[in-house]
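Re: Re: ligand-bound prediction request (bumping)

Still looking for help on this. To restate: I need the protein modeled with fe (ii) ion bound, output as structure tokens. Inputs repeated here so nobody has to scroll up.
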Amino acid sequence: MTENLENKINENLEFQEIIHDLTENPAVQEMKKYRQHFSTSCYNHCYLASYYCYNICKALKLDYASAARGAMLHDLFLYDWREKGTRSGLHAFTHGKTAYENASKFFELNKVEKDMIIKHMWPVTIALPKYPQTLILTFVDKYCAIKESFEDIFSEFSIKKVFRYSYIFLALIIFKRK
Ligand SMILES: [Fe+2]
Ligand SMILES: [Fe+2]
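Reply:
Sorry for the wait, this slipped through. Here it is.
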């Protein structure tokens, strides 16, 4: 997530008001410890997905508060999915349910939020989204995953490019002096 986007999200008072009890919760804070896509933590991934769901659902005149809250909790599975032995079953198929079980321990979830968390991996998992907010999250989630991955790959690529041009520049200086 770029600094500009993060500032924009942090300054949206209505959005912050909707999710502040979630983001202040220690279990939700714990998501900062786990990487989701490349260097993006589960927390930042959920925070961005939540903001996009909030905006899209608001524009479509849907219940955007539930959309923001469901999306903020959709990956509350609380383990490192890259490490073997942290869970039973395949992460892609099981983590929606695990996130729901964790979220329901700490928060009163409505039916939209529950559906969003459990079914956000559709169509990888078969159960069909029941609400438009869930369907929106399935697309937003994949969009965020691609965005987060590409941002990291691109920044790595840029760093490599800077190094490469620095070497060429240095080589040219040395060559000219000889
Ligand atoms: Fe997920
Ligand atoms: Fe996700």
